[in-house]
Protein 1
Amino acid sequence: MRANEINKNLKHLIGEVLQLGTRADALEADTALLGNLPELDSMAVATLIASMEEFFDIFIEDDEISAETFETFGSLCSFVEDQLSR
Amino acid sequence: MFLCRGSVIALADVRANNMNPLFIEGARSPLFGVHHPSDSISGQALLFLPPFAEENNRSRHVAAALARDCARRGIQVFLLDPYGTGDSGGDFGEADWQTWLEDGRKAVTWLRKRGGSRLTLAGLRSGGLLATRLASELDLPPERLVLWSPVTNGGRFLQQFLRLRVAARITGGSDGGENIDDLLVQLSGGESLEIGGYVLNPDMAHQLAENKLEAMTPPTGTGVLWLETGGETSDGLKPGSTRIANHWRAAGLDVTSETVAGPSYWLRQEPEPCPALVESTMRWLTQGEPGNA
């Protein structure tokens, strides 16, 4: 999956899980996620991880993911690109 | 009003929609379900298997919408609460996958005895995994299988459920607390775990993890409809789902697949309708029937 497709699909997943509606369209690489989006509490993070696993057909282990992964939209995109390149 | 443990069914709704809340014999206890009868003589019947834990509560309205449309179009529907779920007997913490499979078999028998000679098995999320497994194991295969956003990998799904309990740890909220591996160790040691208000027993966890859609092939004669929801309607499914659907096609199965525009309704705290999903399902279920395109 190309980077722009990952980008587009992740925007949709984040928008879906957090119910951001059109706000998800405005996500850019440097948009802060964790600590910035009030909807992104720990339960939402767990749900988002599950949605990512389901959509991209990947397995995300405990030790592969941390607060840094969710720092920005860009860091999350990079994480998914990395997972898919394996 | 029927006032039960988990659900409230208004008598007015029952009368208006011709739905019958009732109990059938299950594998280990009586099982609650809602029957939507149809006065058609076509023999068409649909058994709906629900998703796991809280997803079931959140998605009931969509299953009910399907049931109402089906009954109007000559397909009787049974919305089953498997053992330990909804208003059925048993506790969730005592339930396991094998019991749910057997409950499914009992419900199939019940429908067939009520003129349901042309059976559709339908399931949402992990209910789709259960429906596929059941379809593969029934002595008399179902005519059709409807999968709504099916869980494709039971092991991964189990981890996602366990992750709900250690969610705070991921974002650094509680350093040094238990992680998913710790929970798996506890389960394999015979300990049940409480997760988000639900008790997960080791048998359920183990059996759930053993089920993968790609290791199952529905019977060749069973027509399959695989629907997912997304931002826009498209011919495609999620990448992992496409792989499995194509694998089934290569094995000779007739698989119709589509993504419809709609929310992940099983996640929503407030009921969010998904009309495109129900419409697409109804189109497929009634194709080739007299009076339809």
Protein 2
Amino acid sequence: MFVLYMKGLNMRNLTETEFDKKYHMYKDLIYNIAYTYVHNKFDSDDITQDVFIKYLESTVEFNSLDNEKYWLIRVTINQSKNYLSTSWKKKTILNDEMVERTMEKESREKEKNDYYRIITSLPNKYKEPIVLFYYEDLKIEEIAKVLNISLNCAKKRLERGRQKIKEELNNE
Amino acid sequence: MNDFDKKIKDSKECIEKSNQNDSHHIYEMAKNKVEKPALIKRFNYRLVIKYAIIVMFLLVMFTGGFFISKSLNKNGNEQIIYRNSERSNNNQSVNYEEVATNNKALNFGSFETKDDLINYLNDNKINISTSSLNDVQIMSDEITISPKADAAISNSSSSYQTNTQVENVDEADIVKVVGNHIFYLATNVHTYKDYARYLYMLTENDGELFKEKTIEYNRTEELLETIDNYSLVRIVTMIPNDLYVTNKYVVVRVTKTEYKSIKQIGLDSKTYYNNTYDYGTTCYFEIYDVNDLSLVKTIELAGSNVSTRLIGNSLYVVNNYNDYLRNNNRFYFYPYFFLDDVIYYPYLNHIYYCEDSPQMKTYVSLYKIILDDEFTVQDLHILTPTVDNIYSSEKNIYLIRTYGNDVINEDDYQLTYPKTRVVVVNIEGDLTLAGNFDVKGKINDKYWIDEKDEYIRVVTTGREYRNYYFDKKYVYRNESTIFNFLTIFKKTDNGFEESSSIEEGIGKPGESIRSARFNGDVVTIVTYRNIDPIYYVDISNPLNPVITSSLEVTGYSVYQHPYKDNYVIGFGYENDNASNGYKITLFDISDKEDIKQVGNSAVIYNYVPTYIENDYKELIIDIPQFFYNPKALFVDNNLGIYGFRLQMQDYYYEKKTDSSGIYYSRNLSKTHSITKYLIITIDENSDNPISILELDVRDALYRNYDGTYSAYSEDYYQRLVFIGDNYYLLSNNKVNTFTRNGNDFIEGKELLLK
């Protein structure tokens, strides 16, 4: 009980200035990954905010900037998946904001690049290596670390993802 | 990047830009959550009373206030024993207070009481229940002194010795030769069904080899309980890794894994295992009599093994141990070890911490085991980040850990780079902390550090990052540079001090160190990005090391081996625009002002395509094993003979045509693996000083078990050893014998091992 009461009293030891540097260093990375899941900037901004709050609340210590980046990517992926499965998103709520988001989404569909559409509709296990490799310029070794899989598995998934993109393009 | 890849990359532009650019509100939100934590919904009075009663009960039980050593027989019957301390040979007892004072001066702290240790661990964010520790045996007694190790046992030069870094410091390997006996671990047969490994004792008699004894390591399964068609079983797997041999004993290091599993026989008659809890892995030693391989002793040490060394008859073991992070059971809180069935825990004054080291969550345990009739064990534990690697001289063991980045905030940029901490333990008598030092960059292998007299010479490399800030807020530019250092430290009474360094001149911009080799007063360093300068660095004056000459060649060496007094053999890669392969080069270092290549290199091209009518073949050679494990290199420095194995795949592609056009498909039935063992001889007076002889060649077929590939083939060569003029090429299933006559090898009999 004592431990539960203490929960939430720890915040990462960063001044606001230091956090601002981290924010600008990582916000594009987090936002882009989130966007490939939720496909709109409003939800992507929400997820970005949630990830940074989690970062500030977490007391995990990082050996290096690389490890910090990998941790943030993992949290972003998890938050994005959680976001997609939360119940309020499944309810049909008609309000102005919701209608506006839907209309924008529909208009964007028409303009969306085929490659982007195919990539973001891939199963997660193929999409994630593709996004990390091509969009965020991570190396295979880094992708394996982020996704907690072996190097060979990362290579195979990346290759399989590329194959699937080709198959989809050929089918259209 | 081809067109397809470019289009994937360009598709990122479809992502809409975010409007958010304000970190302040996020920071405030997080801060508000911290300052107003969520209240507990319900105050549980019953739970509070329950804990209070438990605490009071435990206080009453343990108001005696003394600690006893407790041994637990593995079958459950408890025995109480006391650890005895003995005086050292020189009649100077080292008591706890002296040890603590000395180590504080060297930047190490120790613990006076168990509570100090617990508080220290809690401060480092480790949540350990104090109630689990009350009956753990921690003593604040005199430390155990053991007799000095015997003089080094040296093999006759007429038989094989492992390629080790330091003379008289033996390193474990899968084969050792003593007298006319070969002790060999055939460990590389691995399928998911067959867990058997073997220790062979082979005896040479008049050139002929006989299999004298075999010990099989297997997976055991013990039935614990059965319900319906489910069984709870306890599974123990014993995988022998490597071994040492002394005049009395054969010491085999085994990875022992123990866990419980639920076993079910399915409708298809296959057996399924669902591994559950109690998973534990320890470092386990089996000690056999060298004459007949009868088991004499077992020693089990908590933690995962980093490395071992044998000096004389003292075995040194370095483990990382952090099982207590996942297990609050009192048996796991401290590093423990078993001698046969008796468990031992450390003395409190054998546990230290580095006063300025971050993230101390692991016990790095160093054990010294005297391989005599009593098997005395000394131990020393340091709370520090896990150790990556070790280097050992005859006097000291260096525990190496690359950790974290050093961040320096300047006015307009933030600088980060890796650092390495080295903790030094003196092993000449009792295990004693000698100090520690930090060095900028990474030590990428054990050959990059060397001790000579009171000086420690260290080579490091790393990448330094600079993030430049606009208005101290936005990163507008980042850049990185590679650095390469040689640093020399001097041992003093207060630890280690930096004596001198070279921070410029090793490697051109963008080049990092790929290999280094210390050889007395010289270190040769190879860097690489596109070409491979090898540098001659004169370190005869530790206060003023100087780069005296360099030589540019294509490719780079990953392993350097001294040859005679004035030469270095470089083993590595060839990489110019025309060809790729593995390269062996002889360098003349007799003149420090002019390091030279002797004659031509020998290159083994690692990719050879061949066209056969409409089909084609690709011969691809794997990276030689000794590039990452120098012990796999056969070395006879007296005769200048070296040897290693090559593995290659001969892929066969058939030309096919379908609706999309022509493509090539691999034909598995025509694809096969080949293994070769190569002998290298050196003639420094020749224009082609490197000669390569194929000692043996054979097909090595992959074996499929239930649709999966085996990791290794039984036919691959593992090691070449010799006794006198008789050479034995060991693979997992047989031994091929050769007799050497000059530089010729005449094939003899074959001994089948299974």
Protein 3
Amino acid sequence: MTQVRAKDLTDDFLTSKGGLVIGKQIENLLKLNPAEDVELSFEGVEHLAPSFVNGAFLYLIDNYGDDYFRSRIKVINSTPDVAKTIGGSVRTYIEHQKQFFSLLKTDKVFLVVDNKEFDRNLAIKLGEISNSKGFVLLKNPTPGNFSEQTQGVLKDADVVIGVLNAESQSSVFIKEMEYALGLNKQCIVLQRRSINQRLSTASLSRIQVLYYDDSDFLELLAKLNKILLSNRNDIVHRPNKSMERKEETTTAVVAFLAIAVLVAIFFALISSEENRKK
Amino acid sequence: MNPVISIAIPGKADKEFWHSIIDSIRSDKFNSASIQFDWSACTQIDDISLCLLLNIIVECESRKIRIFNAPLNPDSFYQIKVYPLISFPINNLDTNEIKSHAFVTAVNDDEKALARVELMKKFLGNHELLRNVDTSALEIIFAELYMNVCQHSSLAEIENGMVLISVDESHGLLEMVVSDIGVGIPANIKEAFEAFEDECDAKAIAYATEDMVTTRNTEQNYGRGLNTLKTSVVSLNGELDIFSGNGHFSIRSGNENHMELSCYHNGTQIRLLFDLSNFEMRSKSDFSEEVNF
């Protein structure tokens, strides 16, 4: 267990900037010592603001997920007020995220990818499998080009998933995601952690960003797969067919995990291709 | 037609003058009337007077008392000196501590947030009434609102706002007014949320005080500021008024109200009123809790 005193890292317990100093330090410690959990002491901190909690803890939940956060980070030596503010803010945020995903309609998914060639290949591979399970992956008719046809298909989607893999992502990716947000579509962005790009206008009620890097991309896809399948109308709302539903769900999960493996291979190929060019 | 009460501002209006107007307003002397200020004789105004004038504007708004100025020419003292300072942030103030009655500071630099919280604490500590009181809620409110103004008003690329805090020792009351001239809360909400395009401004303000509602996609901005404010006001049994655009949102005894204003309010003004007897006394801290997620 790595122990850290919050007061050694910052004097600012009132703003999100102050919190981010803590959040990033915890992140560094977890990266440096992956086998060790972090124990954060708030000894001497009389009170703090919810905005501080945003920077310190919600930052970590966004980047690593709530399960990881809860299992790796412990907060001790706090006053009742501080414990209440931190605990309350974190629990509220996690609940908010869960609600976002539980309300997603996911029969028709439009996939936005920042790489033209990858987009074409991925769409072909996914389309073959998804159509056979009644799960509709809407194909971008003009990948790499934000055309009227693309807009038309996008309008038909229940949810739009964007994969942001490279810093030099195309402006088309941004256009497509912001167009989707403008249509009030629910959006999920899978974003590589090293990328600082943020969509210019976003409401937290319409978008969730899930972060990844090469080491946990598969895990992230599995999580996304679970979310999408659990919200499928034809699976969720079919009465008295629980056994059939389970089998169908299991088959769909297996199929999607297979897709996830393919996607991971694609990313690895692209990544090594880019490294080779450098 | 409402009667018009004309008030001539003297050459060097001091704080007693402005206090007398505030007292008259609060004792309902001006209800069902309009107030007209005559600035023609005024040649000087100090910082505390500006704060008190701001107080008067807020009081009149909440009582629906129309307040306006007698016809002014462009060279008048008011036009040149006063109006720019009221309408726009007080640029010649960096930080300012007024030891008698009010603390006022500009809100124009997020890097100075903590320093200004410290000044506020010092001001509060000068009052016997507040010496042993736990004022942490006020520090949090101040910081949240300060950063809110910096984050939202910075888009307009203009100087931001101001904060006024005053303590009424005889009645045991503390008032905080945070004022800015950004685009206003309703405009921000309506731009970000299509559902509010046709809603009234007051409902848009009410929505902005809900948890996790944010219109700014800056790092670690999750829409907590106004909700924190609302929670603190309710837990301390305080009063809250938010004026922005044509909307007025208020909280009294924990109950929320919203209504449309007859006149348009430029930017946003947030007024908080607390009875200091509702604050807890400072106590020895216990650092033994572990957070349960």
